[in-house]
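Query structure, 663 tokens:
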């Protein structure tokens, strides 16, 4: 029998001794090790982090996330810089880069590549995205400017703005949580204003300076962290509505609807809520995650074993772990299963996750279950056991057009995405470099990842400086080597840009000789090893270049991402109601012997009519016609309910006409 004194001792473990009182987090991969890099009292309750080109860890210290009464910590959130200057594996005393934030969640450091201009540090709080610059190099911000602003009465700490991601084309992505359904206005640096409230969370896209703001995808609960992989694909982790597991890892596409609506109930149990693509027109998750996913990276470096390249890694605050996801092709998207990479005990609460220049990973650790700030905090480093720290790590900030062309050609083949991208852009800055790019893009020995980066860098070159001749008749054009799906998709997405001139309005992409000459294989069906996924992802990328008939012809049952792409095609300016009906009739005739395909085509028609060509007469007909597909009628009922169309509600007969029950 325990004594009272023994019980008191059992619960009175000092905060600083928690590491000794429980097992430390461990790697399930025996080749990796997780080590403590920083801890309280130097840092407390950390949220987001990023690692810059010099290996310095920029970390948010939260002091405003539900501070308890009498909280003795700093009065505002701070952005700290952690450095290991003596090489002992532990950070020295942090430097305060910037102060004065409230409900800060995410940070990102953007390398300038210009020695006369400082790096840009971005920080997302619940209501703002702010850019900061350290002009004199003392690791203290000298200037700051707000580039996005959220006007709303909502004030819950972590369902506002969070989750930076960046693509190769100068876009920034950021998530916005469900905001407890409150009305809001999100305002960009050029005064672009987007409004909403009650629709659930969204992911937005803008330029790096906060201009050209647009809603990119919707239907989330809280898309707290995002990343873009080597092929430009966007992924997000989404917290779940209260008690509705699992949380979601999602492949995000432009215009995608992921099914959650706050106005239908915060907990997500409403029949009009779709959590895994159950309702036609919404998109499913790629995989379930652990509870409260808060950080994600697409791994593209060389510090971990080679098979990690291309994997997604995500933290789980609620399940005390970091998971690994290997992507498996599924139609126009992917699927995966969570594999535990790092598992900790009850006081391992990983939040932010970032890749360092040497390929190791850093993650923040909230430590305790308490939502209120509590004075605890840690940062961990995950690295390969066979330490290769003696190898030189190239500082990406030094990779410029002044670097020797031969060295740039070597770097553009690096496993490190940031090095590949910097080297490709540097090659595009000189005549000699651009000549080598022509060779690289046409060489079958060039890896797919390198080809994609070279192609994207070539697209950035002004044709008045050098015209590469893509899609131009009679030109000395570079040809794409190999026929890789990802390289083809990268080129297709560039069609219509200055280096890839094409009259999109003709919609004759599949028949164009110049496209065929550049791609070698313009139709995915001609590729000997073409898979269903190859065809679907190829078609999804090409959708804006296809005729409506061609687009509908690519539809496949049970491929919601392909359905979403064709649905987006029906919303383009050249599509009218009669034109849509004509294309659907033709597609139904071509699929006369395939009932499932016909049903898919009819669902496309219903979704298109509801979203773009709806009339009261048509809606009433679809509700009352007994021959309308039950799934289609359900979509109509949901649309009527969610859009507030009261005129379509069934009218109850007068009370006096209701027959009485027999005695």
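Result returned for the query:
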């Amino acid at each position: 029998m325990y004594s009272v004194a023994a019980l008191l001792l059992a619960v009175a473990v000092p905060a600083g001794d928690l590491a000794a009182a429980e097992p430390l987090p461990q790697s399930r991969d025996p080749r990796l090790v997780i080590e403590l890099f920083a801890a309280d009292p130097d840092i407390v309750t950390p949220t987001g982090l990023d690692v810059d080109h010099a290996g310095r860890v920029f970390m948010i210290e939260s002091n405003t996330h539900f501070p308890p009464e009498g909280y003795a910590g700093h009065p505002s959130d701070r952005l700290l810089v952690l450095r290991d200057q003596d090489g002992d594996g532990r950070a020295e005393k942090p430097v305060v880069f910037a102060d004065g934030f409230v409900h800060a969640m995410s940070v990102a450091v953007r390398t300038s590549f210009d020695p006369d201009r400082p790096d840009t540090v971005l920080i997302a709080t619940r209501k703002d995205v702010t850019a900061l610059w350290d002009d004199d190099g003392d690791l203290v911000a000298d200037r700051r400017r707000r580039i996005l602003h959220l006007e709303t009465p909502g004030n819950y700490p972590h369902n506002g703005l969070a989750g930076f991601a960046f693509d190769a084309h100068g876009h920034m992505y950021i998530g916005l949580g469900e905001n407890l359904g409150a009305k809001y206005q999100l305002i960009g640096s050029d005064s672009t204003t987007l409004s909403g409230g009650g629709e659930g969370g969204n992911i937005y896209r803008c330029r790096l300076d906060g201009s050209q703001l647009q809603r990119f995808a919707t239907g989330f609960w809280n898309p707290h962290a995002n990343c873009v992989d080597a092929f430009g694909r966007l992924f997000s982790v989404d917290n779940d509505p209260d008690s509705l597991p699992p949380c979601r890892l999602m492949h995000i596409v432009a215009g995608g609807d992921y099914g959650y609506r706050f106005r239908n109930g915060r907990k997500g149990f409403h029949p009009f809520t779709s959590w895994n693509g159950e309702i036609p027109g919404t998109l499913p998750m790629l995989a379930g995650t652990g509870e409260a996913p808060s950080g994600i990276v697409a791994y593209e470096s060389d510090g971990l074993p080679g098979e990690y390249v291309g994997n997604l890694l995500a933290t789980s605050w609620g399940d005390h772990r970091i998971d690994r996801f290997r992507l498996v092709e599924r139609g126009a998207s992917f699927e995966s299963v969570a594999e535990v990479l790092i598992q900790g005990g009850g006081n391992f609460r990983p939040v932010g996750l970032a890749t360092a220049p040497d390929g190791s990973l850093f993650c923040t650790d909230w430590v305790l279950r308490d939502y209120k700030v509590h004075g605890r905090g840690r940062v961990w480093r995950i690295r390969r056991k066979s330490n290769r720290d003696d190898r030189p790590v190239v500082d990406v900030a030094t990779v410029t057009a002044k670097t020797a062309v031969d060295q740039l050609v070597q770097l553009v083949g690096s496993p490190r995405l940031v090095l590949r991208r910097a080297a490709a852009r540097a090659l595009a800055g000189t005549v000699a470099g651009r000549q080598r790019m022509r060779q690289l893009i046409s060489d079958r020995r060039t890896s797919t990842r390198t080809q994609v980066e070279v192609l994207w860098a070539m697209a950035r070159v002004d044709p008045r400086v050098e015209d590469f001749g893509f899609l131009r008749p009679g030109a000395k054009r570079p040809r794409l080597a190999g026929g890789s799906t990802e390289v083809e998709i990268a080129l297709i997405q560039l069609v219509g840009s200055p280096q890839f001139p094409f009259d999109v309005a003709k919609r004759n992409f599949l028949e164009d000789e110049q496209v065929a000459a550049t791609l070698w294989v313009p139709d995915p069906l001609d590729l000997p090893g073409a898979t269903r996924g190859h065809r679907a992802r190829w078609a999804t990328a090409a959708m804006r270049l296809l005729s409506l008939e061609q687009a509908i012809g690519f539809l496949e049952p049970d491929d919601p991402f392909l359905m979403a792409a064709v649905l987006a095609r029906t919303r383009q300016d050249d599509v009218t109601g009669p034109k849509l009906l004509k294309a659907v009739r033709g597609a139904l005739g071509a699929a006369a012997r395939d009932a499932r395909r016909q049903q898919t085509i009819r669902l496309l028609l219903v979704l298109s009519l509801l979203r773009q060509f709806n009339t009261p007469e048509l809606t009433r007909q679809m509700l009352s016609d007994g021959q309308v597909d039950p799934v289609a009628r359900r979509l109509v009922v949901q649309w009527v309910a969610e859009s507030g169309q009261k005129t379509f509600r069934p009218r109850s007969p007068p009370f006096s006409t209701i027959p009485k029950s027999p005695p």
